[in-house]
Amino acid sequence: MSKLKLSKSSLQQERNQLKLYQRTLPSLDLKRRQLTVELNNARRELTEVEAGLESLEANIGEQLPMLANEDLQLSGLVEMTDFELVEENVVGVRLPLLKRIHCEVADYSLLAKPAWVDVLVERLKDAAELHARLEVARERVRILAYQEKRVTQRVNLFDKILIPTAQRNIQRIQIYLGDAERAAVVRSKLAKAKQARQRAALLGDGKST
Questions:
Q1: Residue 130 contacts residue 52 (beta carbons within 8 Å)
Q2: DSSP single-letter state for residue 68
Q3: CB 25 within 8 A of CB 113
């Protein structure tokens, strides 16, 4: 850290820095609060997706108890083969947004498979979409949590370090300059008094002659 210069130019520089910090802090704090709101929303959405997935899995178990039969060959029946992700800008942060998914259903004979397999196919499609939304929701929470932490650190930097340091520097320079100015006044008065005594002495010598 460079040594603080106790000069008028340094005082002006510190004042300019303080004004800049004080102008910047409110906008940073506003962004921090906005990110906190969006992070809470993202966490709520994540909880809802998790709850939806749990509910769907429980529903499948209730609707289709026959899935417990290990003799059934249903693996590979539904497979997600494609998805579309876009980015949305939320308070200056780019977040992923799931637009759609595409699932392929394996060919199965309507005669060879029981009728409830059609219901299972639809539930598996729903589950695939919810799993995809779950991953996206987790990523949104991760990104927003990181950005909120980052902005909070900057807010604390300005509020707890930069602004108080600038204020202390200004006070220190002002005290130094004030002391220097008073010392200069005292020196000036002493010099004038000395000059007056010298003039008086010279005038006294002149009268004695």
A1: yes
A2: G
A3: no
Q: Could you tell me the pTM of the whole model?
A: 0.78
Residue the block writes with tokens 């340094």? 10
Look up residue 107 and give its amino acid.
D
Residue 84 near residue 100 (C-beta atoms within 8 A): yes
Question: In the predicted model, is pLDDT for residue 114 greater than 80?
Answer: no
Domain definitions of the chain by residue range: 27-154
How many degrees, rounded to 5, is the angle at CA 72 between CA 70 and CA 77? Answer: 120
Task: Answer whether 54's CB lies under 8 Å from 131's CB.
Answer: no
What CA–CA distance (Å, rounded) separates 136 from 143? 11
Pick the CATH number of 27-154 from 1.10.3660.10, 1.10.287.3240, 1.20.120.80, 1.10.40.30: 1.10.287.3240
Q: Are 157 and 55 in contact (CB under 8 A)?
A: no
pLDDT-based confidence at residue 10 (cuts at 50, 70, 90): very high
Which of 167, 100, 172 is CA-nearest to residue 136? 100
Are 166 and 11 in contact, with CB atoms under 8 Å apart? no
Average pLDDT, rounded, for the chain: 87
Rounded to the nearest 10 degrees, what angle do helices 116-156 and 8-63 cross at? Answer: 160
Q: What is the pLDDT of residues 54-109, one digit of tens each?
A: 999 888 878 777 666 665 666 778 888 899 999 999 999 999 999 999 998 887 66
